[in-house]
Design goal:
Distance between the termini: 36 Å
Helix content: 25-40%
Radius of gyration: 15 Å
Strand content: 5-15%
Number of helices: 3
Structural class: alpha+beta
């Protein structure tokens, strides 16, 4: 897939938390009046990333963010319909549970 290499414009300045999300949530909740916020995005998603996303989405949502937004932007997504089905499945469980 063209455009997924290093230097991709959308990757500049972004950081994957790699499991550190819980510490950010705890830090926000420790401050009176502060809330935490998750922003999930899906661009630059290779097919091989969909199964790990499916497997790990419940753990991310189990952190119970105070606010969450999902930015669906299927630019450079190899299988956008498959990715969206996985995301929809987990968001539906999160909002109904």
């Amino acid at each position: 897939m063209k455009g997924l290499g290093e230097g991709q414009e959308s990757g500049k300045g972004k950081v994957l938390l790699s499991g550190k999300g819980e510490s950010f949530i705890k830090a926000a909740r420790a401050q009176p009046g502060r809330k935490n916020f998750f922003l999930a995005e899906n661009h630059n998603l290779q097919s091989s990333m969909i199964e790990p996303m499916d497997r790990n989405y419940p753990a991310v949502l189990a952190l119970k963010p105070d606010m969450a937004a999902y930015y669906y932007y299927p630019r450079n997504v190899q299988e956008p319909d498959r990715a969206m089905a996985v995301i929809a499945k987990h968001i539906k469980k999160f909002t109904q549970g």
